[in-house]
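Could you join me in thinking about how sequence relates to backbone shape in a protein? To get us started, please write out a protein record for me. Would you write everything just below, so we can both look at the same thing?
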Amino acid sequence: MTPRTALLSVLVLAIGMTPLTPQASTAGATGIVASISNAPVVPDGDVAGSATDVLITLDGSLDPNVAGRSLLAGRTISVVFPPAFDLGNIDPAYPLNDVPFPFPPVPPLPPQPCVPGNLQCTTAVVLRGWPQDPLFPPRLFTTLQVDHARNALVFTAAQNIEQSPGIKQLHLILNGVTNPAAGQYRIRVEAETGPNGSLETGEALLEIRERAAPSINITSVFVPALGGAEGDAEPVCGPPLLPPLPNNPVYQTTATGEAAGRAWSFLLWGADREPLDNVSLEPFRDGIYLLRRDDGGRSGTVVGTVQVEAPPGATGQEVYQINCPSLMPAAPVIGATPGIGPQPVGRMDLRFVAGDVAGVYKARLSLREGNTVTMVVTAD
C-alpha cells in the first residue's frame, strides 16, 4: 500500500464513521417522531438567523411498500413549537398559505406567491417518504392553520388520507419564521393518526446550529427526466420538474445485473453554504468510491465517499456517474423566492447497477464533516 493510498484509506474510514450531523438528528426522539432535520432543499434551514425549513420524519420505514400513517377527514396533525419560534409573529412578507390549486397556476389565473420557485409564504406539506412529492395537490389533502394558544402549526385533513403509502414525513417551509439562537429546541407532534383517529404523539430535539455544514441531499425533481419508469433506457439530463413526482428514487427494484431504472440525483452544499459543483465519482476499492471535487488544485479535494453494501458473494455491482450540469443557479423548490433565494447548489447524478446475487443493495453517500444519505435497490 502506497503512502497516498494509506492516507486515503484513513480518510475514507473517517468519513464513513462520521456521525449524522444535526441535519438528520434523532436526538431526544420519542413516540411517533423518528428525527427532525434540515430540509433537503436549503443549506441552512436549521441555522441560527435563517428561515426555518425542516423535515420531520415519523417512525416506521420509508420504504413505499410499508404502510405509513392515515389521517381521517377533519382530523389533525399539530407541530408544537417552543416560544423561541413565534408562530404568532410570522413575517407578513411570507404569510401562512396553502400551496394553491390548480397548481401550477393555469392562465388566466395571476401568478401565485406560494408555489415552488416562488414561495413567498409560510407553508408546509405532507410527504409519502421521498423528497419533493407531497400528497398532491396539497390543498386538496390538507389545509394549514396556526393554533396561537399552543404555538402550533396544524394540518387538517380535507379528505381521508390512506396508508398507501400514507403520511411519513412533514416538510415545514416556514419562510416567515426566523430560527432562534444556536441550541436545542424540543419539537412536539400531536397526530390524530391512530386507530379511528386516536391521538399519537412524539418529540425530537431540533438542533439550531451556529453555521451551516456540508450536506448531500436526495432530490426527486430530475427523476422523470433522468429515468422515468423502471427499465427505461440510459437516462438523459433535464431541468427540474414540478410535482407530482411519483417515481421514488430512494427505493427501487431491478433484476440482477441490471441498472436501476431511476437515476440518483443529489444537491450538494459546502460548509459556507456554497455550491459543491464539479464533484466526480472515483472508484477506490472494494465497493468504495471517492467523491472528489475539482477545486482548481492539482488533484482536487476528496469531499466524501460512496460505500456500497451488497448481499454476500455478490459481484458486478457498480455506481457510475451521469455527466449532467454540476451547478444550478437556484436550488429546486425555493428557487428565486425573494429574500430566501436564489441559493446556487451543486448537482451530482449517479446510476446504480445491481450485482449478480439477488437481495438488497444499499449505497451510503457521506460528505466529510457533513451528513449521510442512503439509497436502496432490491435485485430479484
